[in-house]
Write a structure and sequence with these properties.
single chain; mainly alpha; 3 helices; about 90% helix; transmembrane
Length: about 160
Amino acid sequence: HHPFDSFQVVRRLQAGGFAEGQAVLLMHGLRSLMLHTTAPVHDGMLKKADLDNAMYLFKAALTELRTEIRVLRQIDRAALRSEIEVAEQDLDSLRHRLSEDMINLKSEIQIELNQYKSDQRERIQSMEEAIQEINDKFTLSLGMVRTEMEAVKWETTRKGIMAIY
């Protein structure tokens, strides 16, 4: 309620020329009028207990909100760690697969290279055999030509000797 010094009001009214009964009656009227006028304002105002209660509830809600935010952050961190672990596992799996693919590719290339070398060796061997065969035929033909030349030489020498005798 509004602080109202009734004794002070009565004294002032008496000092203003009102009798004590009149001053008391006026004081009661003023007090009622003041209470009636300020009642809606007073009812709309928060009382200290209500304000303290609201402050307590606000602080409690703020503490609860902070706790909830902390818990949500921890959950988010855990989820992020989990996602990172999954991504790392996927990356390791891809690295392993890439490594295997590289090993397989290297093996395939080595096999193809060895096959190419083998084919080239066979080709060279075949060419060398053909060259050797030609060389053998040439040597044989040359030997036959020499033999024929020797035979012609002997025949000529023999005919020449026979012609002389």
